[in-house]
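Quick one, tokens below:
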């Protein structure tokens, strides 16, 4: 729980710091944008005025433009005032693109129907008479108005083509439509007859024929001309497409404008009074109305942008920044402002040509934030770690205390209880038997010694834990230590079982705390007796090996499994707790041994197998330099 709490306590602020860093970096780039806009504010205002003035002029020109005739259309388009234009009259009917004459198509309205020679020629044609072309040719020649001449010539040519007479047909086209009165005639729908017939000539003549060239030149001039005859826009566009298909090099300056106007009429066609640039229903095309909606100028997005580009290029004094007009919804550069009231939604965008210094500054500041963030996270992590360590040591201490209290109370109880029992037995006797009393007192003394040993160990352990264990080092001979330990041991166990002692003859002196070393040997011997049931063969050897003094305590007891060899030196660790309880241990003896030996710069290790006894080896450095007199053992 505490670990979880600590993790949350560190992770939550870390997440906050990361979030803050992210926000700071983003604000940094916003601030940089703001900064640039401020720096170029004056320039932007100037350029915006330029764009606004440009469009106001354009609006004025459109308002003044004469409106309606095909020639007005051509002039406006060729002058570049708009990509295309659509005209309406006061009633809202379409004036240009020029519609055909729907009413004139009614045969009842045909002005030729009352002419006798026209009816005769028609009858001859219906009968299939060979005189038909001559009859029509006569009418064409004698006609005084263009439409009559053109329609008669058209009928003559139709008959000739239908009867396979290509040459005479070409001849008739040449005579009537390349020049002459018929060239400006129109049919009942208002379409130019000359244009259709010239197109026919291009089919009849071979491209090498001089009449082909003449027909082509005449047709192109007709389609590029916006005077008389007035060609309906649909016919003009159709024929322009035809000519472009045959001869792609031919140029029609108004072709794109005608196509755009036709597309607008098809897909949008709505009149509007808004004299601002509005989106039309044609993709990527904008409309601008003038003269109360009678003139609708059409602009492609690219044209609007290019026009502004010119204005901006003239006025932009800065070499570091580039200004462009961007349509509504398009992404803008570093900063943008509204372009003009006449161009709603369009923006004047500013892009820096060299953004490196700006990026560099932003990067530097962001890096500062990031480092500050990392520092904060590191401090948090270290604090968390520190708190965790502190908490763990508190936990360890608390556990140690409870273990100690449990061990002390339990271990003291047994010897005290047996002593009380022995004393009570003696007190109950009316007459004290000398031998029994001595035996009992002997037992009480044993229990007492065991108690003292326990208390000694507890006290040593408590001192070690509180860092209060002090050693008094002096020069001491190993044999003194061995003898002191053996004497104490004999006194304690009365040596019911033998103890084999061997001391090397040439052992060097040790620089050690004699009492502490005696405690080490006593703890090892104590264990050897405790954990050897039945017939005991215990030995204590002191000898010299590899420049060190080795104390070796060996028994023929129960042994220790290999996996326990390390663990038995831990505090309160017991291989078999039930057995340890019976023998009166509390799991502190070996941990004290290890502590003392280490404090002397030595090491303790165990060699043991289950059932085959154990051997504990304590090696201690001598005061002599290493590599002295070699191994000596008894
Ligand atoms: P204890 O007071 O329980 O003897 P120690 O720290 O002295 O505590 O020993 C730890 C454990 O190591 C003992 O409980 C016992 O299981 C095992 N041990 C120690 N010495 C021997 C030995 N000579 N033979 C077998 N087991 C031993």
């Amino acid at each position: 729980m505490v670990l979880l709490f600590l993790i949350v306590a560190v992770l939550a602020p870390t997440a906050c710091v990361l979030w803050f860093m992210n926000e700071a970096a983003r604000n940094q780039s916003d601030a940089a944008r703001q900064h640039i806009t401020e720096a170029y504010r004056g320039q932007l205002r100037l350029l915006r005025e330029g764009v606004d003035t440009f469009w106001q002029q354009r609006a004025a020109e459109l308002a003044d433009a004469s409106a309606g005739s095909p020639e007005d259309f051509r002039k406006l388009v060729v002058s570049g005032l708009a990509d295309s234009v659509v005209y309406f009259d006061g009633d809202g009917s379409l004036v240009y693109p020029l519609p055909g004459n729907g009413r004139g198509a009614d045969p009842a309205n045909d002005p030729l129907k009352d002419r006798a020679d026209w009816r005769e020629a028609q009858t001859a044609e219906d009968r299939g008479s060979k005189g038909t072309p001559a009859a029509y040719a006569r009418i064409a020649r004698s006609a005084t108005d263009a439409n009559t001449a053109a329609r008669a010539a058209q009928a003559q040519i139709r008959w000739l083509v239908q009867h396979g007479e290509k040459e005479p047909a070409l001849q008739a086209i040449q005579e009537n439509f390349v020049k002459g009165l018929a060239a400006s005639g129109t049919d009942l729908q208002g379409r130019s007859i000359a244009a259709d017939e010239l197109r026919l000539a291009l089919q009849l003549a071979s491209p090498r024929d001089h009449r082909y060239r003449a027909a082509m030149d005449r047709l192109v001039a007709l389609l590029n001309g916006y005077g008389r005859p007035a060609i309906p826009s649909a016919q003009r566009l159709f024929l322009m497409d035809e000519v472009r298909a045959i001869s792609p090099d031919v140029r029609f300056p108004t072709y794109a404008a005608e196509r755009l106007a036709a597309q607008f009429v098809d897909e949008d066609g709505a009149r509007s009074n808004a004299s601002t640039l509005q989106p039309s229903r044609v993709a990527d095309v904008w409309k601008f109305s003038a003269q109360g909606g009678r003139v609708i100028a059409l602009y492609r997005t690219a044209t609007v942008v290019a026009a502004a580009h010119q204005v901006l290029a003239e006025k932009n004094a800065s070499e570091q920044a580039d200004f462009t007009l961007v349509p509504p919804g398009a992404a803008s550069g570093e900063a943008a402002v509204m372009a003009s009231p006449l161009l709603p939604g369009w923006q004047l965008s500013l892009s820096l040509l060299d953004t490196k210094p700006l990026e560099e500054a932003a990067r530097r500041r962001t890096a500062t934030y990031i480092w500050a963030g990392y520092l904060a996270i590191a401090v948090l992590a270290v604090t968390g770690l520190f708190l965790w360590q502190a908490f763990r040591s508190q936990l360890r201490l608390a556990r140690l205390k409870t273990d100690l209290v449990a061990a002390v109370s339990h271990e003291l109880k047994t010897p005290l209880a047996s002593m009380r029992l022995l004393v009570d037995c003696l007190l109950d006797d009316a007459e004290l038997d000398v031998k029994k009393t001595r035996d009992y007192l002997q037992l009480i003394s044993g229990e007492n010694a065991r108690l003292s040993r326990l208390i000694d160990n507890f006290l040593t352990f408590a001192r070690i834990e509180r860092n209060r264990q002090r050693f008094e080092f002096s020069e001491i001979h190993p044999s003194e230590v061995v003898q002191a330990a053996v004497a104490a041991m004999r006194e304690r166990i009365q040596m019911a079982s033998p103890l084999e002692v061997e001391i090397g003859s040439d052992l060097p002196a040790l620089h050690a705390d004699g009492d502490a070393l005696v405690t080490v040997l006593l703890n090892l011997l104590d264990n050897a007796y405790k954990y050897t049931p039945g017939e005991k063969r215990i030995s204590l050897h002191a000898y010299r090996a590899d420049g060190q003094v080795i104390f070796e305590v060996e028994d023929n007891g129960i042994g220790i499994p290999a996996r326990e060899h390390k663990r038995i030196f831990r505090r309160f660790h017991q291989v078999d707790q039930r057995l340890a309880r019976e023998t009166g241990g509390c799991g502190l003896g070996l941990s004290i041994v290890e502590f003392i030996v280490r404090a002397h710069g030595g090491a303790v290790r165990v060699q043991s197998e289950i059932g085959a006894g154990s051997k504990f080896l304590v090696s201690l450095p001598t005061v002599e330099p290493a590599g002295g007199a070699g191994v000596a053992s008894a």
